[in-house]
Structure formats: C-alpha cells, structure tokens
Amino acid sequence: MAQFQEAAIVLKSRPYREADSLITIFGKQHGKAGAIAKGVRKPKSKLQAGLYPLSYTVVELYQGRSSLLTVVGAELGQGFGRMRNNLESLSWGLFLADVVDTLWSEHDASTETFQWLMVGLDALNQGRAPATVGMTVAWRCLELAGYAPEWTWCVQCRQPIDNKGQVGLLLSQGEALCADCMRDRSSFKVSLGTLKTWRQWMHMDPSRVGSVEAHGRVHRELFELLDRYLVAQVGRRPRSLEFLESLSALQDGE
C-alpha cells in the first residue's frame, strides 16, 4: 500500500455510485491508470476542479489492495479553458484523449506520448487549426506506440517511394506501394501532396504543430487515411472520430 503524486492528463470520466466518478488518467511517469474519485460529484468537493476530462492536473493517488487507484487530492495545473469554448477544438482534444486511451494499456508508460498530448492540447488552446493539430498529434502518438506506417520503400519492388504520382498504403501492414506496384494490389491511395504533408507533420518541431494546414483534397485524404488506418491497426474506430466526421460534413455544408 502506498501514496504517491503524479502529473497527469485526465482522459475520461464517468459517474460511479451516488457521488463518485471513475476516471482514466495518463500520467507522465506511470502512464495510463484507472482511479476512483470519491465524492467528486458533490457540490463542495475539492477534487472537482482538477478532474474534468482534458485537464492537466497533479493528482495525489493511493494504491491499496485493489488494482484501482484512489484519488485523495488533485491540484489543477491547466484546464485549457479557451479550447473548451470552441466545439471543433474541444472535439479534437477529446479525440486525442480517445487515441491515447486506445493505444496504451493499463500501467504502460510513455513520457513522450504524455508530452505530445500536452503539445496537442496546448496548441488547441492557443486556437491553432484544430484538425491539423489533432491529426498531427494522433500520428505522432501512433508512431510512439509502434504503429507508424513505412512510406520510404515500396514493399513489393523495394524501390524508394519517389515524387511521382500516387502512392498506395497497405493499411493492415502499414507498408507502401509505389505508383507502378499498386496497380496490381488493393491499397489506400493518396496523392503526392498528401504524402508530402504527412511527412512534414511527422518531422515537425512540437512548437510548430498546426502551422502546416491541410486543405481540400489533401485534408479529406489525410482524415480518411487516419480513420481507416486506426481501424486496421487497432481494431476499432474511436467514437469521437464519428462526431468529428459529422462536424466536418456540417462545416463543408456551410
């Protein structure tokens, strides 16, 4: 039995019993963990302010005999208030929390993933292009979890992927096909502009996330690619992505 402190991002929260909540956090040192916050939904609870989803907070945790931690203290570090006042930004923030929750198992730690999630939430809070920020950080999290696609070489002919024509991606294998080889195999096809944008995102300094926006066809291809790649690699589509798709369609209609 032990009590310890952890800098963490609250990924999600759901009601439990009369006034408690079950929360999922992603800690900087200890990774993903489930915890119970007792009495947090009472009006005068001191825990409430620091345990909203997408909050960065320093939590005091107690580890008893149960695998579930108990929150005994919470000090809010950053609530990302401006992000919460913009539906699109908030929706991409929830998507990023969903991605991290999907990619990492209980007690798996990744300091770099924690840092990239913080980068994404901070960029959204600053008002940078929400879709670009969300997709960029999601791809970086996939890379850190070992799911990044390999676009350097054609898996069939072993020639470098050059700057000519379309490129194909075998979604379940995460491997590329050049313009010639993809004629004989079923793959997800992307334009050269889409590949160039993706490569820029993957080599971008965290301080510049959101600065290289995707528009039109490139944006649509990158969104669909992320959607289908997540399903192929991790086996399910995050529910938050369905809402983002509806939101994007509504904005296009406007």
List keywords for this structure.
single chain, 254 residues, alpha+beta, OB fold (Dihydrolipoamide Acetyltransferase, E2P), de novo design (two linked rop proteins), 2 domains, 38% helix, 25% strand
Could you walk me through the main structural features you see in this protein, from its secondary elements to its overall organization?
It is a single chain. The protein has 254 residues and is an alpha+beta fold. The chain has 2 domains: 77 residues, Nucleic acid-binding proteins (OB fold (Dihydrolipoamide Acetyltransferase, E2P), Beta Barrel); 138 residues, de novo design (two linked rop proteins), CATH 1.20.1440.120. The protein contains 7 helices and 9 strands. The strands form 2 sheets. A 5-stranded mixed barrel has the order 1-2-3-5-4. A 4-stranded mixed beta sheet has the order 6-8-7-9. Strand 1 and strand 2 form a beta hairpin. It is elongated and about 65 Å long. The relative contact order is 0.11. The mean pLDDT is 92.
Might you state the CATH topology name of the largest domain?
de novo design (two linked rop proteins)
Coarse morphology: elongated
| Count of individual domains | 2
Poorly predicted runs: none
Tell me roughly what share of residues is in helical segments: 25-40%
CATH C-level class of the largest domain is Mainly Alpha
**Mean pLDDT reading:** 92
Q: Tell me which CATH architecture of the largest domain applies here.
A: Up-down Bundle
Strand order, sheet with most strands: 1-2-3-5-4
Computed structural class: alpha+beta
Strand content: 15-25%
| CATH homologous superfamily designation of the largest domain | Recombination protein O, C-terminal domain
Mind summarizing the main beta sheet?
Answer: 5 strands, mixed, barrel
- Give the number of DSSP strands: 9
Tally of separate helices: 7
H-E order: EEEEEHHHHEEEEHHH
Instruction: Give the CA-CA distance, first to last residue.
Output: 56 Å
Alpha-carbon Rg, integer: 20 Å
